[in-house]
Amino acid sequence: MATLELKNLRKTYLTEEIIKGVSLSIEDREFVVFVGPSGCGKSTLLRMIAGLEDISNGDLLIDGQRVNDIEPGHRGLAMVFQSYALYPHMNVYKNMEFGLKLAGMPEAERREKITAVAKTLQLETYLHHKPGQLSGGQRQRVAIGRAIVRNPKVFLFDEPLSNLDAALRGQMRVELASLHRKLGATTIYVTHDQVEAMTMADKIVVLQKGVVEQVGSPLELYHHPRNMFVAKFIGSPPMNFLPATLIGREHSSSIIEFASGSSMHVPVYSSAVAEGSKVTVGIRPEHIEVVEAGEGSGKVEVVERLGALTLLHIRLANGQLIVVQTDGSDTSEIDSRVGLHLPSEHCHIFAEDGLAFEALNRHPLAA
Amino acid sequence: MAFKVNCGKQIAVTLLGWGVALWVFFPIFWMFLTGFKSEVQAVSTPPQLFFKPTLSSYAEVFERANYWHFTINTVLVSVIATGVALALAVPAAYSMAFMPSKRTRSTLLWMLSTRMLPSVGVLVPIYLLARNAHLLDTVLGLAIVDMLTNLPIVIWMLFTFFREVPAPILEAGRMDGASRWQEMTMVLLPLALPGIASTALLSLILCWNEAFWSLNLTSSNAAPLTAFIASFSSPEGLFFGKLSAASTLAVAPILVFGWFSQKQLVRGLTFGAVK
Ligand SMILES: Nc1ncnc2c1ncn2[C@@H]1O[C@H](COP(=O)(O)OP(=O)(O)OP(=O)(O)O)[C@@H](O)[C@H]1O
Ligand SMILES: [Mg+2]
After folding, report:
1. Which of A28, A149, A341, B147 could be disulfide-bonded to B81 (CB atoms 3.0-4.6 Å)?
2. Band of the pLDDT at B43, cuts 50, 70, 90?
3. Domain that holds residue B260
4. What tens digit of pLDDT does each residue of A244-274 get?
5. Is residue B123 assigned to a domain?
């Protein structure tokens, strides 16, 4: 139905460049999630696609047609706002009808469409309520319904669930995902919720300071982050980083040595970097193993028991604090000493400029 | 203890409120009473609070001047000036509230500063302009001048009301395919209606009570109620009974109108504060 092409999009407010050349292809029916720290330009980029912000530079193509100068209402997009942005003076039915009416759709057809959408979203009994009389979750449904009735080519969402409580957010997340499967419309979704990004996306776009850091499937970003920023941003609790030195190569593996003197073989290519240079080893909390005696050891400082799993905050000999995730039955106590094993296949190595060394083997789920 | 302090404060505030209200209301009340006195009673010392009311002043006022002629002029001037001011101010305030530029702030301040200028400072140029445009002593001429004097205030008020409307609601309208005009008329105006109503009311009141330009730009044909009042303060001596009767007649319509719309007015004026 709809493909999008962002070609070197730029946005400048006064003198400050907020979006610094974003290029991206979005396939038909794809669910694309923009993530990134607060202020990185996610909303701005989405609003540029919507037409609510001018594009300072670059081209935006929808279905191969340049739409930079087309009014938002005529781009065939629908947007769901973080604050819902329902029309407070219209009831639910009229809220959904507004766009259809402006498009000149006949009354009977409007009624049919709205009734059908209201049914899908379980809003039938609220059609004559004003937005002020609805709960947050219901308002969110109306906002989504208002987008759906227009049958847009592309859905745009700007943190649509962030005003809901945790339970409702989980429920709406599942509903949105199944709605997307059913409608199959191309969707761009802005969030800074890890779980939303990982579970809903076909493709995640990680932004930082107006620049795309990496584009890929959720598991691709998880298993093969392109640089330290993405490695740290995707995954929770975030990846641990340890300083080390590259001391050699063997069968295209890299050999690194920690300050403690212990060394290990890591299955990544390191040909771009000279032996003896400083590197950073990254390993996720869920991949570190607690053992009797391993390459490293440390003292447990904090134990967080979450039921299904346990998070240990461990102080290493060099004074660094790392997080290790173990299962819920872990019996480690505060102030006890534990040994640590870092499975080499789960280690990432980053050069001094933050770029990751390429892994010898791709993860099967992140091909 | 805290309760007592609070209570005392509340009583003080209440007394102060009443005091100010009476202070403001007293002249109107006295004018109303004086209208029903004979000319002798009107100037008697000490002033009389209780007296035998008479309608003689009113009778004489109606006899000497055509009250309805002045009233119609005032209504026409107020309504035209307010209508045109709103029609110009709504788009201006819309653009300033939702598409501010670097200069919006200073433009607003500059507009307000024109209100600080004494009107008499521009009397001659305005008079000559009106004369050359053949607008002296016409309802249209007075309406234009009243409209222009009130425009800054009207834009300011609308600007503050519009700023209370969340921008995403208008953007949602734009995404739904509304043109700028539709966005303004179908989304913004209904939401800002209380504010627009109180702005209109304020403009009506200001036009109704405007005296300086009325006296200088009109003589008979387009003379409004303020000129009607002035015609009873003659140089041969003041007749307070008749002056009061005329003044009461002049302010009565807007007073009654204001009374009925005061809820709307208060709601509009405290729009942002209570929400
Ligand atoms: N109208 C504007 N004028 C000037 N700067 C702006 C404007 N709108 C946004 N910005 C700036 O652009 C940057 C990106 O803002 P944006 O709202 O896109 O961030 P975001 O990634 O959506 O953040 P969040 O996660 O907090 O919503 C911010 O630094 C912000 O200060
Ligand atoms: Mg945002």
Report:
1. B147
2. confident
3. 67-269
4. 999 998 888 899 999 888 899 999 998 788 8
5. yes
Q: Which ligand is nearest to the CA of A41?
A: 1
Concatenated DSSP letters for A191-226? ---HHHHHHH-SEEEEEETTEEEEEE-HHHHHHS-S
Ligand nearest to the CA of A157: 2
Asked if B104 has any chain A CB less than 8 Å from its own CB, the reply is no
Q: Quote the ligand 2 centre to A132 CA distance (angstroms).
A: 24
Q: What is the CATH T-level fold of the domain A289-341, as seen in this structure?
A: OB fold (Dihydrolipoamide Acetyltransferase, E2P) (2.40.50)
Residue pair A4/A10 in contact by the 8 Å Cβ criterion:
no
* Residue B251: Cβ within 10 Å count: 20
* pLDDT, position B273: 39
Residues A251/A237, Cβ–Cβ less than 8 Å? no
**Residues B186, B189, B194, B198: is their CA dihedral positive or negative?**
negative
Please state, rounded to an integer, the average pLDDT across all residues of chain A: 93
Q: Complex ipTM, two decimals?
A: 0.87
Window 37-96 of A: residues touching B by CB (8 A cutoff) are 50-52, 71-74, 77-79, 81-83, 85-89
Q: What is the pTM of this model?
A: 0.85
Are A4-232 and A237-282+344-367 in the same CATH fold? Answer: no
Share of chain B above pLDDT 90, in %: 52
Task: Say which CATH number the domain at B203 has.
Answer: 1.10.3720.10
Overall size of chain B counted in residues: 275
Interface test with B, best of A14, A53, A81, A149 (most B CBs within 10 A): A81
Pick from B166, B174, B178: CB nearest A52: B174
First-to-last C-alpha distance (Å) of chain B: 32
Q: Where are the alpha helices (DSSP H) in chain A?
A: 42-50, 92-102, 107-120, 136-149, 166-183, 194-200, 218-223, 228-233
State how far the Cα of A69 lies from the Cα of A71, in Å rounded to an integer: 7
B62 assigned to some structural domain: no
Q: Per-residue pLDDT tens for A45-60?
A: 999 999 999 999 999 9
